[in-house]
Design brief:
The protein is mostly helical. The protein has helices at 8-18, 23-46, 60-65, 67-72, 76-80. Bound molecules: zinc ion.
């Protein structure tokens, strides 16, 4: 077991340095990507459906469209009480759903 496992950031930095991009520019680009990822994450967490479904009414498409709301947010109870066409709870990962 190595005592140091490179992160995606480290790998991207190494690749950029190998490609001849200087260190300050590589850091700048990677930070911009990180900021964008964080912002996208925040936007996803803030998304709430216009018409939230109740227990038993949530579909796979609803969870796919609003994953934070139905998996981690206020809609979790409703999703937990709803099943996909393979009879799995929508809060579980179903081997049959994409
Ligand atoms: Zn399923």
């Amino acid at each position: 077991m190595p005592d140091y496992i490179p992160t995606a950031y480290d790998k991207a930095l190494d690749a950029m340095l190998e490609a001849g991009i200087d260190r300050p520019r590589a850091d700048e680009l990677l930070l911009a990507v990180c900021d964008l990822a964080i912002r996208n994450h925040e936007i996803a967490q803030e998304r709430v459906p216009d018409n939230p479904k109740g227990p038993g009414e949530v579909t796979y498409a609803d969870v796919h469209a609003y994953p934070y709301y139905y998996i981690r947010g206020e809609g979790r109870e409703a999703a937990d009480a709803s099943r996909c066409e393979h009879d799995y709870r929508l809060t579980s990962s179903c081997p049959g759903c994409p």
